[in-house]
């Protein structure tokens, strides 16, 4: 494509296309017209194409003229070329035949050599087989002599005989594998019988060494097993002849049920087997810093496999999760047993073999932890839910006012939540393998408590408005409940950090990432609970306001007290003022020494709301009085005009003025009672506005 670009004549710049458009691999006429139609009309494109065609023709003529001599010489040079080619065909054919003959000769020689080599190989193999067969005869005879009952039993150092025979037995097995085509079945049978007899003698001597605690002879026996590649035989021998009888007497249902310690005692007796009967073997095979024989794993292949099999066979009831208390005891006892097994007798290689063993994995899977957690979940969540689903009533309050100053919670619901949060992480319930599930359950309980708080705030209680001899109103039970709820939520939020420490202490590997995740999730829970406090405060304020504002509404009765009653000028506040503040006085008396700062804040907010309502009530009364006064004045003018009586100046203080004076006295009394509560009047919104309103009404 680049060569084409070099031979194409350059198109003038004023054309509506480029010469490169025609040499593109995906050149399409329709696409070309569609793209360049935007640059000009079809007539312009036609003229440009005609102009470029002339350039192409001119370029083609120049090219032909430039290469004309080459075109002419090409035709003359080709004359006689076909004759020369024909003359070469005969010698080339002869050469091809000669090459084929040489190739065939080489192939025949290669085949002959390969056949001879294969025959030589078979002859060598046959010779080797016959030599091996000769060695087999010698070894069989020698081993038969060495292992004859009389010779072996009379020999003082049987281990020396076995070591000597082991070398010969290895040679026998090697040569028998090399002469399989020549050896007779009787000889193979004799070889197997001799090997079995040898292993029997070795097993008897090995067991005797273990029982006699003869470590030196035991090491020599183990090395013989290793030499003969009989490691599995030694491990099975220990399992069936030594471990199985001991384990059978330990692992049974009778010991599980009758022993006070139950499974824990069974595991301890199993560890005693390792510490006593198997200690010699473990010392020899496990510890590289001592005189040891490598390659054996009696802990896993002799002890653990037998123990796990017998547990599953005779006391499989331990896996039943129906009784969570018993299941927890047995599972923790099992983990303790496995931990001791790993720490006291486990090397890195042994531990890897133990944990990767299929029976070890299956054994752990048989402990149905999901079912155990589900039972605990229903148990713990059920206890919490039983308390939280009960309707809010006076019985929901656990303690008295004195509890507010202590760390204990005042509501049964909060106590149930906190007690069960701690119970989840008790050693009698918690399992490290279920850490994530127990943590999720803890967060769910906190979330459920948050939901309960929200619904408890909205529940409407009947307010008890009984009066005693001093005519003081008794607090509603709902108000007490809300205060207890507020304090309980604060206490719970403050207790969560200590709860987090308890949870973090359960993390064995002290993972920083996990600790950070725990802090973040519990921090969010703490913030959600803290966000409840403003809502509880709002409900407390509403409850206080409802008890007070009902009395302030009596301000509307003041005009009736003074109209046409000829009462004296008022000097004392009306009883409703004191009645309106009494609930706040009682509230302050009950809680000021317990939660002083919070109570003062609540009183300030309540009084601000109360004062705002009081201002509205007083403003309505003043407006009504003014309208009534103006109406009476107009009626009097009309009446005086109709009778012709001149209007006279009013004598003394009018009823309307007495009403305004009473309002001023009431407002001043209200402000003084606020001061008696040790509440700064500056912090009470609308109070100064209220005072100004009644004073302005008197000055009119």
TrEMBL record:
Protein name in UniProt: Conserved oligomeric Golgi complex subunit 2
Any GO CC annotation of this UniProt entry: Golgi membrane
Organism in which the protein naturally occurs: Ooceraea biroi (Clonal raider ant)
Transport listed as a keyword: yes
Keyword match Transport: yes
Main localization, broad class: Golgi
Membrane topology: Peripheral membrane protein
Family per similarity comment: Belongs to the COG2 family.
All residue ranges annotated as the Conserved oligomeric Golgi complex subunit 2 N-terminal domain in the record: 15-89
Keywords assigned: Golgi apparatus, Membrane, Protein transport, Transport
GO biological process, one term: protein transport
Residue ranges constituting the COG complex component COG2 C-terminal domain according to the UniProt record: 365-667
Localization: Golgi apparatus membrane
InterPro entries, per database record: COG2 (IPR009316), COG_complex_COG2_C (IPR024603), COG_su2_N (IPR024602)
């Amino acid at each position: 494509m680049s060569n084409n670009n070099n031979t194409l004549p350059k198109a003038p710049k004023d054309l509506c296309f480029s010469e490169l458009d025609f040499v593109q691999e995906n050149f399409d006429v329709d696409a070309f017209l569609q793209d360049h139609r935007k640059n000009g009309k079809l007539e312009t494109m036609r003229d440009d194409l005609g102009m470029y065609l002339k350039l192409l023709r001119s370029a083609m003529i120049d090219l032909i003229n430039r290469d004309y001599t080459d075109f002419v010489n090409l035709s003359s040079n080709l004359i006689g070329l076909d004759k020369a080619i024909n003359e070469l065909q005969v010698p080339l054919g002869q050469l091809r035949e000669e090459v084929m003959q040489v190739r065939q000769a080489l192939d025949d020689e290669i085949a002959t050599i390969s056949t001879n080599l294969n025959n030589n190989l078979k002859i060598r193999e046959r010779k080797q087989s016959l030599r091996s067969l000769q060695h087999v005869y010698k070894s069989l005879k020698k081993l038969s002599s060495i292992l004859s009952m009389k010779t072996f039993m009379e020999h003082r150092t049987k281990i020396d005989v076995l070591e000597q025979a082991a070398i010969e037995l290895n040679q026998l097995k090697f040569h028998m594998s090399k002469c399989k085509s020549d050896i007779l079945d009787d000889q193979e049978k004799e070889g197997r019988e001799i090997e079995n007899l040898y292993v029997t003698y070795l097993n008897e001597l090995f067991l005797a060494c273990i029982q006699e605690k003869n470590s030196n002879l035991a090491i020599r026996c183990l090395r013989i097993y290793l030499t003969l590649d009989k490691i599995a035989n030694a491990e099975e021998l220990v399992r069936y002849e030594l471990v199985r009888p001991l384990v059978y007497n330990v692992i049974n249902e009778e010991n599980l049920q009758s022993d006070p310690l139950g499974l824990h005692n069974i595991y301890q007796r199993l560890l005693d087997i390792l510490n006593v009967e198997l200690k010699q073997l473990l010392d020899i095979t496990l510890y590289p810093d001592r005189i040891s024989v490598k390659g054996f794993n009696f802990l896993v292949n002799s002890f653990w496999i037998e123990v796990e099999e017998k547990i599953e066979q005779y006391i499989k009831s331990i896996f039943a999760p129906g009784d969570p208390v018993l299941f927890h005891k047995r599972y923790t006892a099992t983990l303790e047993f496995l931990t001791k097994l790993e720490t006291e007798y486990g090397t890195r290689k042994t531990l890897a073999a133990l944990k990767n063993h299929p029976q070890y994995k299956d054994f752990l899977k048989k402990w149905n932890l999901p079912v155990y957690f589900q039972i605990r979940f229903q148990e713990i969540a059920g206890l919490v839910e039983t308390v939280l689903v009960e309707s809010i009533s006076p019985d929901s309050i656990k303690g008295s006012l004195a509890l507010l100053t202590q760390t204990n919670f005042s509501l049964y619901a909060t106590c149930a939540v906190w007690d069960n949060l701690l119970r989840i992480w008790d050693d009698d319930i918690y399992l490290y393998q279920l850490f994530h599930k127990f943590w999720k359950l803890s967060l769910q309980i906190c979330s459920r408590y948050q939901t309960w708080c929200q619904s408890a705030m909205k529940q409407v209680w009947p307010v008890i408005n009984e009066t005693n001899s001093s005519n003081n109103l008794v607090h509603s039970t709902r108000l007490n409940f809300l205060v207890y709820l507020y304090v309980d939520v604060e206490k719970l939020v403050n207790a969560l950090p200590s709860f987090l420490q308890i949870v973090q202490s359960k993390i064995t590997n002290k993972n920083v990432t996990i600790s950070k995740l725990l802090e973040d999730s519990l921090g969010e829970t703490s913030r959600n609970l803290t966000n409840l406090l403003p809502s509880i405060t709002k409900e407390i304020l509403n409850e206080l306001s409802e008890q007070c504002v009902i009395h302030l509404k009596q301000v509307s009765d003041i005009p009736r007290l003074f109209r046409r009653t000829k009462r004296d000028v008022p000097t004392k506040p009306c009883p409703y003022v004191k009645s309106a503040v009494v609930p706040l006085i009682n509230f302050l008396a009950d809680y000021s020494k317990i939660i002083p700062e919070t109570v003062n804040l609540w009183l300030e907010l309540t009084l601000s709301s109360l004062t705002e309502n009081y201002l509205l009530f007083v403003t309505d009364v003043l407006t009504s009085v003014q309208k009534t006064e103006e109406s009476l004045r107009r009626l009097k003018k009309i009446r005086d005009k109709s009778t012709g009586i001149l209007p006279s100046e009013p004598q003394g203080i009018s009823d309307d003025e007495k009403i305004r004076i009473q309002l001023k006295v009431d407002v001043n009394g209200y402000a003084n009672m606020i001061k008696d509560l040790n509440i700064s009047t500056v912090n009470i919104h609308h109070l100064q506005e209220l005072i100004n309103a009644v004073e302005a009404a008197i000055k009119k």
